[in-house]
Amino acid sequence: MRNYRMTEMKHFSLDSDLTRNYINGTIPPRLGQLPKLKNLSLIVNRLTGPIPPEIGNITTLEQLVLEDNLLGGSLPPHLGNLTSLRILALSANNFTGTIPDTFGNLKSLNEFKIDGSELSGKIPDFIGNWINITTLDLQGTSMEGPIPANISQLTSLESLRISDLSGSSSALPNLQAMKNLKNLILRNCLITGSIPDYIAKTSSLEILDLSINRLTGNIYIFKNLESVTVLLSNNLLTGEVPTWALNNRKQVDLSYNNFSNLTRPASVGCQKQQKPLNLVSSYLSNNNGASRKAFLANKTVNIVPCS
User: Fold this and answer.
1) CA–CA distance from 168 to each of 116, 119, 193, 196 (Å)?
2) Predicted model pTM
């Protein structure tokens, strides 16, 4: 297939989708002269260089999707002029620097995704302005914690994904008002303390990943997690291995914790579970030495499926 350059693109409509067109080169500043452009998607191309500041002149822009390219440099503060923007997707590029303060003006945002970049600095407090946001993805950056407390204001969130923060530790932020939360991924975010009860009571939850933190306490009573993918490895959780984990029909990883006991319920011999439960190095002691030795020797507890 022919490789196109952005400088060859002469015709843009109000909805310009140039996804997977093998486009190389840089994004031309002249795109800023298209004041009526609403949607610009250049996902999965070979674009290099920075985002031109002139893109901030397209005040009608509602979607700017530049994921999976080779873009780099700092994020232009001028993008903060795009107050009609609903989707800003910049993941899988090579951006550096911090998120500009002007991004706090983007109060119409429904999605902000910039995972996989080399962004630095603290997660800005102004994300509390994004009250309409449903998807916030800051995975795999070089940003610092803690997660701002005013993230609790984002009550429309359905997917919250943050990982690999440096800096100081903190408790899990208050997410109780996020009634529509489906994906909660706060992996390697220096989170301490116990997991609040309301997390297990979030009926919309599908994925819970709080792996590689410093969480403590007992999770035995979180029975509502039986139909949720639960990833809690590499924490400091204690108490008995929960029965709901044995009955869970999704993936469960409780490895590398400090659980003290495992009691298999009588019904565990026949469960509609297709995924194994990972408990490697998660168990400290058992009154029966032989059982303890056998348990530590196996990475998973496999549940016999019902015929």
Assistant:
1) 21, 17, 14, 20
2) 0.87
